[in-house]
Specification:
Elements lengths: L1 H7 L15 E5 L5 H9 L4 E6 L12 E5 L13 E7 L8 H10 L1 E12 L4 E2 L7 H16 L6 H12 L2 E12 L7 H19 L12 H12 L5 E12 L2
Helix pairs in contact: 1-6, 4-7, 6-7
């Protein structure tokens, strides 16, 4: 997924402007570590701390990067207002009570610091003539209900901007919505690539879901049917990705 988004961002870390004199950078939910490694190379004078609930895959790390295996839903071992930049990509859509977690994360940001978040709506869309197919509708309905029963919001992406603005601690909240085509077709080849990579990632995730989820009605038949519909070249299936970059007030 990182390669597709990196291509869209033209190898920048964010849509935000370059941050001068950044010394402490935190990435939450670092996954493979790809973004954190890129950040460490972009800001060689900064210390980049990457955290994730899962171990970091073995790979060489820049000298100015460290990894800590931590759960963001639990108290983090950092002082308030410690970081110049905090980044999270596709993290909050997985979390229970995500707004409370976000409040704690924001408390770690220095005055004038930047919060960069990219997140999704965990559902498929189709605004073509025929609209979403029957399997897409069924998957969206069942998955959405299941996530809400776990106190997880599947539509975090769409709510990010308004939640950040309501905090009233940012001088400005910037947000861009990107329509990611699941069949990889778009006038902008960068967005087409993001869509293709996202479809591959979503396919892998959905097809490997724990069998216990089948009890909710999300069967392999429903998943395979939805994936066929959303990637059909004759349809207009997509997912919504929201990119935000917000500067904390002084």
């Amino acid at each position: 997924m990182h390669k597709g988004i990196d291509s869209y961002l033209e190898h920048k870390l964010s849509l935000a402007p370059m941050v001068k004199n950044a010394r402490q950078i935190l990435e939450i939910g670092c996954g493979s570590g790809a973004w954190a490694i890129q950040a460490a190379k972009t800001y060689p004078d900064a210390t980049v701390t990457a955290i994730d609930v899962s171990p970091l895959p073995p790979r060489p790390l820049p000298r100015n990067m460290q990894f800590l295996q931590l759960n963001v839903t639990e108290p983090l071992p950092f002082e308030p207002e410690s970081f110049d930049i905090i980044h999270a990509r596709f993290v909050f859509l997985h979390l229970q009570h995500w707004e409370k977690v976000l409040e704690h994360v924001v408390s770690l940001l220095k005055p004038n610091g930047w919060l960069w978040i990219e997140d999704l709506n965990s559902e498929f869309y189709d605004d073509g003539i025929c609209g979403p197919g029957p399997f897409i509708k069924k998957l969206n309905d069942i998955y959405g209900s299941h996530m809400h029963s776990l106190n997880v919001n599947p539509l975090v992406g769409s709510e990010l901007q308004s939640v950040l603005e309501r905090m009233e601690i940012f001088s400005k909240v910037n947000s861009v919505k990107i329509r990611c085509p699941m069949n990889g077709k778009d006038k902008d080849p960068r967005i087409g690539r993001v869509g293709s990579v996202m479809f591959a990632s979503m396919s892998k995730a959905l097809l490997s879901m724990d069998l216990r989820v089948a009890n909710t009605g999300i069967t392999r038949q429903v998943v395979e049917g939805a994936l066929r519909e959303v990637s059909d070249p004759s349809r207009s299936g997509y997912m919504k990705m929201h990119m935000t970059w917000s500067q904390k007030k002084k």
